[in-house]
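Dear Dr. H.,

I hope your travels went smoothly. While you were away I took the liberty of generating a structure for the chain from your last submission, since the lab meeting agenda had it listed for discussion. I wanted you to have the full record in hand beforehand rather than looking at slides cold. The sequence, exactly as received, is reproduced here:
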Amino acid sequence: MIRFRHLTLAMLGALAFAPAAFAQDASTDSASGKRFAIVGGYALTQPTKNPQIAGTRTNLDGDGAPTLSASYFFNDNFAVELWGSADKFGHRINSSTGKLGSVDSQPVALSGQYHFRSADSIVRPFVGLGYYQANYTGEKLENGQRLGVDNAKGGIATAGVDLNINPTWFARADVRYMQGSKSDVKLNGLKVGEAELNPVTVGVGIGARF
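The corresponding predicted structure, in token form, is as follows:
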């Protein structure tokens, strides 16, 4: 949670100071009509629900990872985005007695988005809805037993803001919520519970459009 607070403060600072700084980068070029955008960034993720494994209530830590996205704009406002983590989020599995194990997750999502205001506005909020899948790998238990978690899939909602630096470059901050299906949790091949993590990710990044 501490890292979430730090990232949130950084986002608020960027929103407060960016408009005045970015206004100096105005040019005769225009962002309007550019159809492709790519964004590289970093995001923190935190599960909002925690699974019960073999009768034991667990708690999963959040983690950070680099992210990438690519968007195609049908016009200046409507776009489709492919987004995902470029590396795995690592989650420590805890119980009231301490660490039980760990699991990695790597989500990827396809969303439709609407970007408000004109393409050359310094501040451009956007929202999106789509479909995601999270692959779970690297499942480990401290006691040496074999743990397995099925992949999750479901809907994703996005809200964010782009801060135009110039017609090509922009900074981005976003929040994503993933509402997924329940994933079977298996211990030594036998189902012992279900996981419905429904994570929230908070991210920042730098993008380019062309």
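Two observations you may find useful: Confidence is low (pLDDT under 50) at residues 8-12, 14-26. Residues 2-22 form the longest helix (21 residues).

With kind regards,
E. W.
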